[in-house]
Amino acid sequence: MSITAIIIAKNEESMIANCIESLRWCDEILVIDNGSIDSTASVSEKLGARVIGFSSTDFSKVRNEGLKRSKTDWIFYVDADERVSPELAREIMVSIETNVGQAFKLKRDNICYGFPLTHGGWENDYVTRVFKRDDLTSWSGKIHESANFNGKEVSLQQPLLHLTHRSTKDNLYKSAEWTGIEADLLYKSGIKPVTLFTLIRKGLMEFIRRDFIKQGSKNGMVGHVEALVQAMNRVMVYIQVWELQQKPSLPDRYEKIEREISQKWTKQKDLQKN
């Protein structure tokens, strides 16, 4: 049975090489470059990966592109900041050879700020990423996408390592992308007008949920930091919903200001001519 590793990547020049190296056991490595402006594509090609340029803010469309471009019996979706151990690779191959199922679910071990997180909602992170190609029909969901497949799903024992939230700067870049997408979906759903109370409530409840209810505090300082980061992300989502709810829109407001300034300069020029 043959297998293709499909790496979804955007501006991951510092992470893509080690990701590819942990996937050498696969028959093919396919990188779906989602609009990178750094050297992600060239680094991937130098390391022997096949690179497909496909840019979309709809994550399911990106994964569907990988499905369309693959030709092997099995496919394995990996993000550029994820790593596969020899033990996980061996378990995947044995599971494929023994035909125990058509889809495999993996537990992700999340490393944030250099520390493994075992509480705060990070401890039960499972992703279904390995599929018998003919049984995977499609992916759906613009954000937090899920796979639509036929057959039996089997949970594997060895974890997938996720090297996420490598710095505050890294967090901000990622948050700027996905919070905007989520805000757009909420706005289109007809959500009630966002108020100051909404922002405070959403941020506070997310922090309490992460740090206390899900016991992120047991991870020490990094648990508190992550709870705060997730709380800020919730606030950022709803601030952007508030932006979208403005009438006239924010772009229209700025265009009006620009137009007024331009008109003043036009009048100034006319006065100077006279």
Describe this structure as you would to a colleague.
- With 274 residues, the chain is α/β, with parallel strands linked by helices.
- It has two domains: 3-164, Spore Coat Polysaccharide Biosynthesis Protein SpsA, Chain A (Alpha-Beta Complex); 186-254.
- It contains eight helices and twelve strands.
- The strands form two sheets. Strands 1, 2, 3, 4, 5, 6, 7, 8, 11 and 12 form a ten-stranded mixed sheet that branches. Strands 9-10 form a two-stranded antiparallel sheet.
- Strand 1 (3-9), helix 1 and strand 2 form a beta-alpha-beta unit.
- Helix 5 runs parallel beside helix 7 (221-245) and helix 6 runs antiparallel to helix 7 (221-245).
- The protein is globular.
Question: What is the structure about, briefly put?
Answer:
By secondary structure, this protein is an alpha/beta fold. It has helices spanning 16-21, 40-46, 59-69, 86-97, 168-188, 196-213, 221-245, 250-273, and strands spanning 3-9, 28-33, 50-53, 74-79, 82-83, 103-112, 115-116, 126-132, 136-140, 146-149, 153-155, 160-164.
Number of helices: 8
Instruction: Sketch the topology as an H/E string, one letter per element.
Output: EHEHEHEEHEEEEEEEHHHH
Mean pLDDT: 95
Query: Terminal Cα separation, in Å?
Result: 84 Å
Question: Which structural traits does this protein have?
Answer:
8 helices, single chain, 45% helix, Spore Coat Polysaccharide Biosynthesis Protein SpsA, Chain A, alpha/beta, 274 residues
